[in-house]
Specification:
Elements: E1 15-21, E2 26-31, H1 47-59
Antiparallel strand pairs: 1-2
The structure holds zinc ion (ZN).
Length: about 60
């Protein structure tokens, strides 16, 4: 794994890779803080893609 997930841009909580759709094998990234509980709401086929997208989003909120 070459890239690490940055903390949640909203609450600073820990982020993690979560299953987006088990049938298609897609993943997304979400915040582990239950009170925040945001996810990217977008599916990726590899962990790396999801991580890159998440990290880019934490740097730049224009999505
Ligand atoms: Zn959060």
């Amino acid at each position: 794994m070459s890239e690490e997930l940055k903390p949640c841009p909203f609450c600073g909580g820990k982020a993690e890779i979560i299953m987006f759709n088990a049938e298609y094998g897609t993943v997304t990234v979400g915040c582990t803080n239950e009170e925040c509980d945001i996810t990217m709401g977008k599916a990726f086929f590899t962990d790396e893609e999801a991580i890159q997208h998440w990290n880019r989003r934490t740097n730049n909120e224009n999505n």
